[in-house]
Structure formats: structure tokens, C-alpha cells
Amino acid sequence: MALNFPPASLRIIHQDHVADTINNGHTIQVNYSEGDTLTVGASAYQLAQYHFHSPSEHTVDGKSFPMEMHLVHTGADGRLAVIAVLIVEGAHNAAFDPIWGNLPTQKGVEHHLAAVKVDVDALLPAARTTYRYDGSLTTPPCSEGVQWFVMTTPIALSAAQIGAFTALFHDNHRPAQPLNGRAVLTDAVGGSD
């Protein structure tokens, strides 16, 4: 049975942003304030930061992935919407070079890399279809009320790129949680509940 849900579109302002990175002790986080927007129905969310987990926190047909990227968006009302991008091992991904070339090893110090520019659009898969569900944050306090959008198409990082992250953070994921009756929707062709 197909379920109705509001259309979602990721609108990226096609400009590079300055990288502000921090090793927060749990992951590498890149803070963002350039105005990229996720629109869900009539609601707009601003990209606040993105960060990484290894292995993935989402699974597809029970399969986990070497890594996952979360792009965390906040609404004017404080609600959160997160785009999750699954990461497989493959070819070197040059779009990540500005971040991976400056992975902070010291915990708790934010690095403003004024000369480093990142194109967020290039970090995402070309196909923008998603799985969608209402869930919670994956780090404490694991607050509920988060709209999740998991990209149906993974991106690739090389074994060396994955290894550079896992050398800093080995197993920083929250295990997949039971659905507990939540519906998972998709906007992929032929998608339904």
C-alpha cells in the first residue's frame, strides 16, 4: 500500500563553504552556516552541521555499510531533520579531500580553515531519492521527533579515506533500532511503505 507524504527536496545553494571542523570526541563534525536548505512540505530546515559514523547506523535489508554521513538541519521551531548518506568502499572521492586533508586529531578544539572550501552538493549522491521515517537522534540524549531522510544511493570513499576516519573513531555508531511500528516511506520509483 502506497502512503502519502509531503514532497521533500534538498535545495543546495551552489557555493563553497569555509570548513569549521571539530573532533568532539565522538566524531568529526563540520559546522556550517552558509544557508543550504532542506524543504519538507511547507517547512524549511537550515543545514547546521554534518558528521560521520563508522560503521553505518542505518541498514538496508539488514546490511550495514562501512560509514555513514549525517547532515543535520534545524527548523525555525527547533525541530530537526537529518539526511543520512550511506558510504561504501570504492574509488577515491575527491569531494572529501578538503575535509579529509584536515581531519582534527585533538579533541575539543574547533579549527577554522579559512582557506579550505567544501562543496556540500558534491558530497551527496547524484540520485536524491530517500527512505523516510520519524525517529530520534543517534547520540545522547537520543531525543525523539527527528525526521530522517536516508539516501537510497550510497556514495563511495576509498579504503584509505575510510581508514583515515576509523583510525580516529573506531565503532562510533549506534546500533540499528527496532522500527516499533514506525512506517518507512520512500520516494524511489515504485516505492511504497
Notes on the protein architecture:
- The chain has 193 residues and is mainly β.
- The chain has one domain (8-186): Alpha carbonic anhydrase (Carbonic Anhydrase II).
- The protein is built from three helices and twelve strands.
- The protein has helices at residues 97-100, 120-123, 159-166; strands spanning 8-11, 17-23, 28-31, 37-40, 43-53, 67-75, 80-89, 110-118, 130-136, 144-151, 155-157, 185-186.
- Strands 1, 2, 3, 4, 5, 6, 7, 8, 9, 10, 11 and 12 form a twelve-stranded mixed sheet that branches.
- It is globular and about 45 Å long.
- The N and C termini lie close together (6 Å).
Present the secondary structure layout.
Elements: E1 8-11, E2 17-23, E3 28-31, E4 37-40, E5 43-53, E6 67-75, E7 80-89, H1 97-100, E8 110-118, H2 120-123, E9 130-136, E10 144-151, E11 155-157, H3 159-166, E12 185-186
Parallel strand pairs: 7-10, 7-11
Antiparallel strand pairs: 1-4, 2-3, 2-8, 3-5, 4-5, 5-6, 6-7, 9-10, 9-12
Domain module count: 1
What is the straight-line distance between the termini? 6 Å
Low-confidence stretches: none
Helix content: under 10%
SSE topology string: EEEEEEEHEHEEEHE
What fold name goes in the CATH topology slot? Carbonic Anhydrase II
- The CATH homologous superfamily: Alpha carbonic anhydrase
In the CATH classification, which architecture applies?
Roll
Helical/strand content category: mainly beta
Features:
12-stranded mixed β-sheet; mainly beta; 12 strands; Carbonic Anhydrase II; 3 helices; 193 residues
Give a concise summary.
The chain has helices at residues 97-100, 120-123, 159-166, and strands spanning 8-11, 17-23, 28-31, 37-40, 43-53, 67-75, 80-89, 110-118, 130-136, 144-151, 155-157, 185-186. The chain is mainly beta and 193 residues long.
